[in-house]
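Q: What does the assembly look like in three dimensions?
Context provided by user:
Components: two
Sequences:
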Amino acid sequence: MSALLRIVQLGLGPIGRESARLVARRAGLRLVGAVDNDPALEGRDVAELTGSPEAAGLKVESDLEEALSRLKPDVVLQTTGSRLSSVMDQIESVIAAKANLASTSEELFYPYRRHPKEAKRINAMALQHGVSVLGTGVNPGFAMDTLALCLSGVCREVRSVTIRRVVDAATRRGPLQKKVGAGLEPDEFRRRVARRELGHVGLVESLDLLAAALGLPVENVEETIEPVISEVALQTEYVSVAAGQVAGIHHTAVGRGAGGNLVSLDLKMYVGAPAPFDEVVLVGDPPVSNRVEGGIAGDAATAGILVNAAWAVCEAEPGLRTAIDMPLIRWRG
Amino acid sequence: MSALLRIVQLGLGPIGRESARLVARRAGLRLVGAVDNDPALEGRDVAELTGSPEAAGLKVESDLEEALSRLKPDVVLQTTGSRLSSVMDQIESVIAAKANLASTSEELFYPYRRHPKEAKRINAMALQHGVSVLGTGVNPGFAMDTLALCLSGVCREVRSVTIRRVVDAATRRGPLQKKVGAGLEPDEFRRRVARRELGHVGLVESLDLLAAALGLPVENVEETIEPVISEVALQTEYVSVAAGQVAGIHHTAVGRGAGGNLVSLDLKMYVGAPAPFDEVVLVGDPPVSNRVEGGIAGDAATAGILVNAAWAVCEAEPGLRTAIDMPLIRWRG
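A: Here is the predicted structure of the complete assembly.
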């Protein structure tokens, strides 16, 4: 695997720009193209847009299929949308161009339960064209799923899993601060939850992968989405939160079986969280209690794992892959 | 992968008996044989020896090749020795019988730097016979290597790794308490270190895998082995330690390059360690600070990961595999 991998960055929002910047300066990878369908970005200089002198000469393109057929990348890194419905066309184009795909689409991380038709279609196409497709990221992708699976490897038995993640949204990109509802009135927050406009996409995908991979007989999944109310006034680069307004979101997902709670996920993302952390507790034999102090830094780490996945999707067997049926994604210097 | 895997347990010391017990009661696995070359064990009832009623009717056998040719296992779980030189013949017999192998041989975990000839031979034989061979365990195998690699997946850069592990040897099997020197006089401890009779086999293998997998340019490796002296009298099921005697071992391995310390491993295993833990610190971007509270329980977890590896070695591509080029080893219920 010492050959230089040719990479196309698909999507140039905050995560995509960071991904492109990392690819441009990374040994073993070569940024050969950047695609985004935002007309405001078309023709923009990638070096300037991403702060990557190494990308000098590259312009943002808007025609994905044309770019793929001309550039023949080994891997496309996709950061264009959370929902499978919004990224499906792009995924099919990438597969048809015989490029491997790593994507931050949250629903792609484990689509088998909630989107079985799309999962089947992606897998069939990927097998047909001999490439692999992977949904990855930090959450879903690592902090609330893969890390726990890795830890479960040392257990003689796992009876249940409890994972807690606390994120200080003030350290995250602007779109995420808005996504967690920071600055809303509590009533407006609840209305948006009722309209399904708020909530962390991917929490249930983490739960689905955990249940399937650990063989935990989850029968039903229940979610709650509540606001975290700020007791003080807070100001970030992107939002203002008055005392009594919403600082962010508290989203839980619990998978239950006959034996009680089998998978419990508890995610708080709010502006001003004083002590972020990631905690995995495996109830089993031996029990495992793991904690990442300070938590896994969201946006930086999401771009990090996406780019680190470039090698893994090339080494993986063709098909729709998940964190459990491919080589470990790791830093490679 | 829903077919029942046929397992032969090779080695019936404390870890091997526990492994056999786990296999016997595990859904998806079937214990079809148990082999040990200790004449005192030959013909012993496996059910009685391992406390596994499920193994009723199985007797311990001494002839590995005969057992393999009759039983045709999918996987052999080997717990017979730390040194590659002492397990090489068995490994070759297992491969020749077209069985996959997971082994707790510490030197097999990453043999490429210290035993390149054996590594090459195992890989060639495994490719020839279409099976995979894996060294696994907790240390080496997980706590001071694979867990850190898993965590590195979220980094945009890793500059160095520091891992600390503290084990209360009183919670471990008798042979291990003796291996760490508990109950020795400090002078005797140092004499045995000088004769290379004391020290944790596998620490350097963890370092070698980390350096190779993370691409850290380690130029030289230095080890230190010192006694941990007990300030009080201690008594376990297996050893007595007077105040001033050795409670256990403090073994470090540091890999240095031009930029300083790149991989630092610090292992303390001693009777009476008050607060065991496993800690991984990745110096990088973002930095990662991870801690398993209470540590990963040695013997139980070693048997656990060995048995969990049974599926992974069947799914892996043929050849000599390591933690980084095969699917994640996980609990499967």
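Follow-up: The domain at 5-137+300-321 of chain B is CATH 3.40.50.720 (Rossmann fold).
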